[in-house]
């Protein structure tokens, strides 16, 4: 097992939000400006299990640069465990979402394996961290580190980004598996109130949803010429540009989109053709299968194209099921009727350069006439805020954190039952047939992001929690 690796972060000026947030900026500014004094040299550590792909990595990149700008020393460390560990934690992940996953057990043997796997990382982190520091551990992969870091004397927060609205035997089993470790944390953070565990001591749960950063290659404004050039580079659009399109990197330098995606399609997507997009990891709980099925079977609009977009399936370190899920989607694609297949595009984006990848996601979301998130379970679903920020109308399942983002009928359409294919199809058909309503929804969606779905707007909650912990533990 390799030692955990630190991810390089560049501070970003929080001041850039002044104009965007208007009067709302004051609160962010006040909280931020006192943070350095309050923390008094303590380091805030974040530990998770992947630096790329997926919502946790995205969320950390969306707010840690602003914490650094506040003068607070914050670090991000990524575990480097072996494949069998990630197979087990993927089972845990699926169970937390109420799903059996690979159907395997979570018994004493798995528990022993889980704890033993994390022993070296725990020792290593306990060496790095000082007794005054605050450590935020993210998701089930890291919960086993809580005892080692508590023993070190640090304040330990466990942040759980996953959960379901209604628990079942699988969620109970997953919670039971981690209960001893999580019970030892000083605080536990959930993305929404319904995710809190009954088994935890009263008062130890706190709700902090994630948010997006408007000023990254993923979310910055993009003109149509650049968008089309990026689509051409990916291979989704019809024309590869003569010169690679450029974007601004977070360190201020200029990046170029130089790689192509792996695109499975009969022909590239012509300009002006209506397009529905879903962006997500290749995870069965994102239900690409259901979306393809309803696209082929239930939608009345036979002009519209569908792009399923995800990271290169080998590109997300802690998600060992991606390649198999992608394979299943590929088979489904091959079995589609020819007139449907000619309107489907499977797009895998390269993960070699994360900012290039982010700019590609940006271009595809901006090319969409409508964005879908047909998940069966969703901790929060940052892709929803990302689509809303681009003023795209959304159609999504009324589950998990998606409900905390889309206002039904105002900034998108929520479908009560994620398995109700005809309802999804009817909602998509109706919005595509009504451009004016779509535009109004898109505008409302963008406004909503501005008024409360941005990462910097969560800073108050973060600092409040850290301040509380420090004062309780050090008194
Ligand atoms: N994503 C990405 N590149 C891709 C596909 C997805 O960066 O090729 C990002 C996506 O834009 C979003 C994140 O992965 O920011 C997924 O987060 P979300 O909360 O939607 O779901 P999770 O993966 O955490 O289940």
Give structural notes.
Helices cover 42% and strands 14% of the residues. With 475 residues, the chain is an alpha/beta fold. It has 2 domains: 5-211 and 454-474, 3-Layer(aba) Sandwich (Rossmann fold); 224-450, Rossmann fold. The strands form 3 sheets. Strands 1-3-2-4-5-6-7 form a 7-stranded mixed beta sheet, sandwiched between helices. Strands 10-13-12-11-14-15-16 form a 7-stranded mixed beta sheet, sandwiched between helices. A two-stranded antiparallel sheet has the order 8-9. Helix 9 links the parallel strand 5 (155-160) and strand 6. Helix 5 (83-96) crosses helix 9, helix 6 packs parallel to helix 8 (146-152) and helix 10 (224-234) packs across helix 14. The longest helix is centred in the N-terminal third of the chain and has 21 residues, at 108-128. 52% of the residues are buried.
**Average residue pLDDT:** 95
Return the CATH topology of the largest domain. Answer: Rossmann fold
* Broad CATH class of the largest domain: Alpha Beta
Number of strand segments: 16
Strand % is 5-15%
Main sheet: strands, sense, barrel: 7 strands, mixed
What order do the strands of the largest sheet run in, or round the barrel if closed? 1-3-2-4-5-6-7
Point out poorly predicted stretches. Answer: none
**CATH superfamily grouping of the largest domain:** Glycogen Phosphorylase B
Shape: globular
Bound small molecules, deduplicated? uridine-5'-diphosphate
Kindly name the structural category: alpha/beta
**Helical percent range?**
40-55%
Radius of gyration, whole Å: 22 Å
Quickly give the CATH architecture of the largest domain: 3-Layer(aba) Sandwich
Domains (count): 2
Ends distance: 38 Å
Number of helices: 18
């Amino acid at each position: 097992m390799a030692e955990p690796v630190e991810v390089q972060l560049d501070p970003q000026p929080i001041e850039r939000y002044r104009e965007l947030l208007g009067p709302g900026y004051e609160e962010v500014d006040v909280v931020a400006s006192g943070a350095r004094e309050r923390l008094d040299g303590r380091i805030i550590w974040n530990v998770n299990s992947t630096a790329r792909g997926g919502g946790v990595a995205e969320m950390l990149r969306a707010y840690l640069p602003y914490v650094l700008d506040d003068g607070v020393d914050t670090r991000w460390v990524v575990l480097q465990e072996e494949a069998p560990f990630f197979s087990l934690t993927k089972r845990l992940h699926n169970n937390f979402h109420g799903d059996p996953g690979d159907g395997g057990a979570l018994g004493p043997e798995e528990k022993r394996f889980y704890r033993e796997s994390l022993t070296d990382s725990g020792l290593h982190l306990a060496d790095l961290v000082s007794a005054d520091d605050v450590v935020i551990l993210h998701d089930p992969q890291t919960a086993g580190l809580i005892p080692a870091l508590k023993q070190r004397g640090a304040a330990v927060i466990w942040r759980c980004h996953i959960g379901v609205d209604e628990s079942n035997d699988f969620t109970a089993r997953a919670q039971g598996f981690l209960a001893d470790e999580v019970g030892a944390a000083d605080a536990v953070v959930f993305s929404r109130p319904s995710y809190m565990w009954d088994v935890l001591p009263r008062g130890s749960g706190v709700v902090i949803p994630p948010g997006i950063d408007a000023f990254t290659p993923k979310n910055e404004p993009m003109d149509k010429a650049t968008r089309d050039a990026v689509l051409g580079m990916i291979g989704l659009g019809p024309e590869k540009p003569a010169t690679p399109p450029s974007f601004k990197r977070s360190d201020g330098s200029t990046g170029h989109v130089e790689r192509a995606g792996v695109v499975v399609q009969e022909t590239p997507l012509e300009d002006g053709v209506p397009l529905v997009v879903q962006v997500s990891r290749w995870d069965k709980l994102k239900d690409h299968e259901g979306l393809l099925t309803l696209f082929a079977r239930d939608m009345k609009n036979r002009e519209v194209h569908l792009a399923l977009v995800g990271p290169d399936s080998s590109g997300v370190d802690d998600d060992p099921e991606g390649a198999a899920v992608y394979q299943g989607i590929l088979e489904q694609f091959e079995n589609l009727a020819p007139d449907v297949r000619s309107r489907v595009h499977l797009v895998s984006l390269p993960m070699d350069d994360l900012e290039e990848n982010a700019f590609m996601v940006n271009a595809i979301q901006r090319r969409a006439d409508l964005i879908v998130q047909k998940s069966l379970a969703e901790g929060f679903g940052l892709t929803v805020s990302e689509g809303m920020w681009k003023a795209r109308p959304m159609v999504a399942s009324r589950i998990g954190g998606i409900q905390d983002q889309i206002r039904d009928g105002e900034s998108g359409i929520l479908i009560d039952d994620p398995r109700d294919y005809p309802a999804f199809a009817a909602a998509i058909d109706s919005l595509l047939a009504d451009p004016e309503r779509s535009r109004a929804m898109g505008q409302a969606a963008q406004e909503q992001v501005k008024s409360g779905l941005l990462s910097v707007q969560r800073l108050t909650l973060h600092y409040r929690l850290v301040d509380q912990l420090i004062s309780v533990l050090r008194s």
